[in-house]
């Protein structure tokens, strides 16, 4: 079981810049919890994501001496990937590949075919530099743009990624469109069809829909879940303002209920949640 904590996703849309020292302190608190991976920052244009323009400075302030948690940075193009790959502390580069042409253009300002070419180049870069590419299939459960979507389309994208040698694919519920009825069949079909790929779930939920989504993914065989403390963040294009990231607390509660060992330091989690409440103003 792998839990990926995503403070980057939670912070990136905040309108007021979080001081670098505050970001660094929060991430250092998260590094003590015992998550498998910390999605901590991104190497993208500061014009696109001004909140994370200080990712390199934040990285320099992280204390990795007593943690097993690995670092993941999001990139939007080859240039960002080359920058991220220069940092030995980073284990994973994450790239959002959309099954929706419209969203790919909006998100990374390129066509899906160009994005797939970038994936190939990024995977080769990761192989050269000792990193691992994590490809997020955004709009993986449907989209609001009217672009074609079906399980077969998601499978076709996965087949192309498998052919490139990509080993981690996270299905991403970009606008909260997923339901148990769409989650379960996708994971049930993809996981046995592509045994060389580790599949993850990056789910966006409302406060009342989270359990059915986690349960559907878990029961279909998914063992990699993204979350964010407090459920903060998510896609600004979601029509429902209550739709946010999967709350890490809910993930932990569900997995603990069914007896899945997580190996987390719950005292460190409580301290990190206290720090989060000051940044995100939740209770």
Automatic annotation (TrEMBL):
<dbReference type="InterPro" id="IPR043594">
    <property type="entry name" value="HMGL"/>
</dbReference>
<protein>
    <submittedName>
        <fullName>Hydroxymethylglutaryl-CoA lyase</fullName>
    </submittedName>
</protein>
<keyword id="KW-0479">Metal-binding</keyword>
<dbReference type="InterPro" id="IPR000891">
    <property type="entry name" value="PYR_CT"/>
</dbReference>
<comment type="similarity">
    <text>Belongs to the HMG-CoA lyase family.</text>
</comment>
<dbReference type="InterPro" id="IPR013785">
    <property type="entry name" value="Aldolase_TIM"/>
</dbReference>
<dbReference type="Pfam" id="PF00682">
    <property type="entry name" value="HMGL-like"/>
</dbReference>
<keyword id="KW-0456">Lyase</keyword>
<dbReference type="GO" id="GO:0016829">
    <property type="term" value="F:lyase activity"/>
</dbReference>
<feature type="domain" description="Pyruvate carboxyltransferase">
    <location>
        <begin position="1"/>
        <end position="270"/>
    </location>
</feature>
């Amino acid at each position: 079981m792998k839990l990926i904590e995503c403070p980057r996703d939670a912070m990136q849309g905040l309108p007021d810049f979080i001081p670098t020292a505050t970001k660094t302190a929060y991430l250092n608190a998260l590094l003590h919890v015992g998550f498998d991976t910390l999605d901590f920052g991104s190497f993208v244009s500061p014009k696109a994501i001004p909140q994370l323009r200080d990712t390199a400075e934040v990285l320099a302030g992280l204390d990795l001496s007593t943690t097993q948690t690995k670092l993941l940075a999001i990139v939007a193009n080859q240039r960002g990937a080359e920058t991220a790959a220069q940092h030995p502390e980073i284990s994973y580069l994450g790239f959002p590949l959309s099954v929706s042409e419209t969203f790919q253009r909006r998100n990374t300002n390129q066509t899906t075919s160009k994005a797939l070419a970038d994936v190939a180049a990024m995977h080769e870069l990761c192989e050269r530099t000792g990193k691992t590419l994590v490809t997020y299939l955004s709009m993986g459960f449907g989209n609001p743009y009217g672009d074609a979507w079906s399980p077969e389309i998601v499978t076709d994208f996965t087949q192309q990624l498998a052919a490139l040698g990509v080993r981690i694919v996270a299905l991403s519920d970009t606008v909260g469109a997923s339901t148990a009825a769409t989650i379960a069949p996708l994971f049930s079909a993809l996981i046995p069809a592509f045994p060389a790929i580790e599949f993850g779930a990056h789910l966006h939920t409302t406060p009342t829909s989270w359990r059915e989504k986690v349960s559907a993914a878990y029961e279909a065989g998914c063992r990699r879940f993204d979350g964010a403390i407090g459920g903060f963040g998510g896609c600004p294009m979601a029509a429902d303002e209550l739709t946010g990231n999967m709350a890490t607390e809910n993930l932990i509660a569900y997995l603990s209920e069914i007896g899945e060992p997580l190996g987390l330091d719950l005292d460190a989690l409580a301290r990190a949640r206290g720090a989060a409440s000051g940044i995100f103003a939740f209770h």
